[in-house]
Amino acid sequence: MTESSNTSGAGLGSDVNESEAFNDLDVEKLLQVVRSSILYVAAIFAVAGTASYAFLRYTKPVYESESQLKLNIQNEAVILGVQNPLENSGVNSLSGEIELLKSNLFFSRVVEAINYNVSYHYYGNILTEERYRNSPFVVSYKLHNAGFFDRPIDIEIISENEFELSFPPAEQSGTSRHEFGETISTADYNLLIEKTENFADDNGIGKYYFTINSESALINFFQSNVTVQPLNFSAKTIKISLRDFNKYKARDFVTAIDTLYLKYTTEEKNQAIEQKLSFLNEQLGITERKIEEYEDYFENFTIENRTTNIQTDLGRTIVLLQSLDSQRYDLQNKLTNIQMAQEQMDRNEPLLLANYSSRSLPEFISSSLTEYNKLFGERELLLGSYSENTYAVSRMTQRLATLKKNVTSITEEYRENLVKALRELDVRKANLERNFVELPSMGTEFNKTRRFYNLQEEFYFSLIKSKAELEIAKAGTVQDFDILSPASLPVDPVHPKQLLIYGVGAVSGLLLSLLFIGLRYLLDNKISHQRELERLVSVPVLGSIPVYKREKLLTTRLLVHKVPQSVLSESLRSIRTNMDFLLNGGDQRVIAVTSTISGEGKTFVAVNLGGILAKTGQKVLVVDLDMRKPKIHLAFGREKDDKGMSTVLIGRDKFEDCVQTTEIEGLEYLGAGPIPPNPSELMLGERFDNFIRQASKTYDVVILDTPPVGLVTDGVIVMKKADLTLYVVRADYSRKVFLKTLQKLIKMNKFNNISVILNSVKILNKKGYGYGYGYGYGYGYYDEDHKEKS
């Protein structure tokens, strides 16, 4: 016997490996947790299903009505043949229409059109229901205080003719009873509540409330519930949808939006045409005035200049100047000839008729000058023949003087006429030359004015044409969209969706179940099966002992001789065989049986293992060293004796005198005896070592049932004196942290002869074997010991 036998397989793992062993996933244990959680999982699914049903039952369904429109939008630039390659006109135009449909301006028009100034609701047991178009009463109102908008006013119809109004005025509270058709007047409002055709004795009586809606509240309602989204940009189709608790209300409001959009676009188009016509009329007036001014200019110009063609006038002026020059030249010649003739006559010289042309002078002057020149010649002839004093010459001279006087008078008068005519020609020429200088600038101004006039005239005609086209377009204005799908009357609500809610309930149940199982798995800190134990410890596991279910045991009992063919006995035989390998077949063996705390089955293992060993013909002694709470005698059905281990250790008795036989031949036990005050000190004494040596010589196997090592130090003292220590762990009872205590114990005391036995293992589909514990030996060890001392 040695304090630490050289047994194999007691190597210590590192702390890291121990930690990994404690944190690894244990599939077998997880399956065990799953099997044990089936009822809880079923309960979780039942709760999730019930919650889904309650949600569907007590959630107001939301309906959605929708319509589809096709917009026939044309870009003005495209119409004019101008296309911006970088601009997607269809997308921009469609986006613009969508923004228009979602604008406050458009919704304010919708609010004016739907006549939804008052909304009526009925109080149900849990939910409220809106009475849209089927309210049993109608409210006419006139508010003096805007603060009463959007506030619910309770009304309870108590009879066919009476109702109670519960909306408190500002200066008082409570309810007031009124009759239908009665005007209710306060400082804040005037109300007139009347029955409608929907009122019925069995249907109208009840509790309602109504709300006087403000325009801003209704606009906010549309902005929050109306959705306008494109369906196809290429096809320019959009969808208008509205969600509400009342499906008829949703359909009517979508229809109102479609109708108003039709009217709105037509009005907008006509308004645009009216604006264009107004502009055209204004431009026409301005153009007409300008044209009139130009026409006045042309008229005055024509009157002043007596022409409408400056170029022709220029040519004509040149011709006139040339004509005047010719006339002047002719007159000048005539005047020269006349003056020459006068001068010749004044000098009494014969007229040189060859110097002037008789055709250039008038006939009467030409004949007079010819006659004078003839008579002057005749006189000269007479003077050649006669003297001046002769009668013939005198007579001729007298006739010549008379003729001269007449000719001189005629020529003088003619000369004066020529001078006057010449002067007139000079004046005319001067005027023509002056006009000729002014004509180019006048022509330029005239032509310039003519061009402006032509432009204004063309512009005027184009305005007239555009005005005619717009008036035709106004007469034939049509809407810019087609209703592909009118507002629908929804049948099924969009929220809550039954399948979705039940699906969410099922998924929630599944997730909660997984969470529950996961938490149970993570919070389960107890050892359940042998493989888990093998994974958590670094010492050999000799085997497992199944739970005994045939009967309920109030105390630990020796059972192997009663059920020798049971799984319980076979498991102990297997442990016995494994012990032989660890002890290398030694003849005398001291085996300590201990555990972390009480209740894990170390006494049961010690007694029944002793019985199995005794069945092989070995002489076995089971010693009760748990002197604080002895119970070996209970396992053998004996009463507590007044002598035992405690009296042996104090030297009062010999152990041979204290040993008692059992029902199994070769199996004897030594009870704890009276409870000593100092069991640890007794076991540290020499008498305990002597007892071990004597018992080892007397018995083949000595089994020491020690106190739990997690509670007192007695067990550690005994383990140091044993050849093999069996550390008992109880399935589904011992915590994993106990194994850390075992590992710490091994490391601190350098034990290498410790093996582990898993006790009370549940075996599925096996019946009739197992055991139970009916005594209170657990965490309250010291408490119970203290009670016994008391």
TrEMBL record:
Keyword ATP-binding among UniProt keywords: yes
SUPFAM superfamilies: P-loop containing nucleoside triphosphate hydrolases (SSF52540)
Family that this chain belongs to: Belongs to the CpsD/CapB family. Belongs to the etk/wzc family.
All copies of domain Tyrosine-protein kinase G-rich, residue ranges: 453-520
Top-level taxon in the UniProt lineage: Bacteria
Protein name: non-specific protein-tyrosine kinase
GO molecular function: non-membrane spanning protein tyrosine kinase activity
Membrane topology: Multi-pass membrane protein
Compartments it resides in: Cell inner membrane
Pfam families hit by this protein: AAA_31 (PF13614), GNVR (PF13807), Wzz (PF02706)
Major localisation: membrane
Record key words, sorted: ATP-binding, Cell inner membrane, Cell membrane, Coiled coil, Kinase, Membrane, Nucleotide-binding, Transferase, Transmembrane, Transmembrane helix, Tyrosine-protein kinase
Membrane-traversing stretches: 38-56, 499-523
Domain AAA span(s) in chain numbering: 589-744
UniProt catalytic activity: L-tyrosyl-[protein] + ATP = O-phospho-L-tyrosyl-[protein] + ADP + H(+)
EC number: 2.7.10.2
Enzyme class name: transferase
Annotated coiled-coil segments of the chain: 270-297, 393-435
Start and end residues of each Polysaccharide chain length determinant N-terminal domain: 23-112
